[in-house]
Write a structure and sequence with these properties.
This is Cyclase family protein. This protein is an alpha/beta fold and about 280 residues long. The chain is about 10% helix and about 20% strand. The strands form 3 sheets. It has a 7-stranded mixed beta barrel. The chain has a two-stranded antiparallel ribbon with strand order 2-3. Strands 6-8 form a two-stranded parallel sheet.
Length: about 280
């Protein structure tokens, strides 16, 4: 190989690579995991082409229609697994005449700049609130006071910070019936505890601080109060902010010092998109 080939050329690495490790903050997407909103299109993955014809496999025969390779087709909601909400998820175009229409209504997922989806991580631990609402299908609220208390200890939030609410809710992201506690028991049956989530006052404080990206390890950043209210999404998305939902392993991040990045699939006109969330975390010395 000539110089400059993958074997012989210099291997680029980010300047922080030696002192940081990459942590995957994404959930696994599979048909038997609670990766989709319980009232939306279920996630499906089906084999389209297989290496060879196989009649002796379950649940269905496999066919090699076009040659000895494998590929699958997917049926997938835009808000599946670890994903983000673009402004168009709740904000119609300002000329539409629809409720909550505004200037950010034309910003679909493919038009959100990647710079908005990356930045210094500010991890707010709200896990102590889990189960404290006192009634099923009602979220304990994260208020502005919780955030200012966090700031008293870790410093005031700044423009460009990515605020991540760590509730530990991703521990309920399990296969089969056990996974119904993640969202189904909250949204469909109304019998389960609901995840902690910020109220409108907390979102307004983040906006006042210049925060334009916030995330949660719950299925939604919005609180549940018998049903899912729209005011949190409308307040944040209506101001041009975006939300990353369905995160995992936020307990691997310190309150300050990590760098967050979410890279969504680039879907034209989408109201959101699944993707991969990672963080660069300082190595322990």
């Amino acid at each position: 190989m000539a110089d400059g080939s993958p074997e012989n050329g210099p291997k680029a690495s980010p300047p922080w690579a030696g002192g940081y490790e990459i942590v995957d903050l994404s959930v696994l997407v599979a048909e038997d995991l609670p990766c989709y909103w319980p009232t939306h299109q279920p996630y499906q993955a089906k084999v389209w082409n297989w290496y060879e014809n196989r009649q002796d496999v379950a649940p269905a025969p496999l066919y090699s229609r076009e040659g000895p390779y494998a590929t699958r087709w997917l049926a997938i909601d835009e808000h599946t697994g670890t994903h983000f909400d673009a402004p168009t998820h709740f904000i119609p175009h300002e000329d539409s005449g629809l409720p909550n229409a505004g200037e950010w209504g034309g910003v679909s997922a493919d038009r959100v700049p990647l710079s908005q989806l990356t930045g210094p991580a500010a991890v707010v631990d709200v896990s102590a609130l889990t189960g404290s609402a006192g009634e099923p299908a009602v979220s304990p609220l994260v208020t502005a006071r919780h955030i200012t208390a966090w700031e008293d200890e870790h410093g005031e939030l700044a423009p460009g910070d990515v605020v991540l609410f760590r509730s530990g809710w991703d521990s309920r992201y399990r296969r089969g019936r056990a996974g119904q506690a993640y969202a189904h028991d909250v949204i469909v049956t109304g019998r389960g505890d609901a995840w902690p989530a910020p109220d409108v006052g907390a979102i307004r404080l983040l906006l006042d601080r210049g925060v334009r990206c916030a995330g949660s390890d719950a299925p939604s950043i919005a609180p549940v109060q018998g049903k899912l209210p729209v005011d949190v999404h409308v307040t944040g998305l209506g101001a041009g902010a975006v939300f990353v939902e369905g995160l995992a392993r936020l307990d691997s991040l310190p309150p300050r010092g990590a760098w967050f990045c979410f890279l969504p699939v680039k879907l034209e006109g989408a109201t959101g998109a699944p993707g991969r969330a990672v963080a660069w975390v300082p190595r322990a010395r």
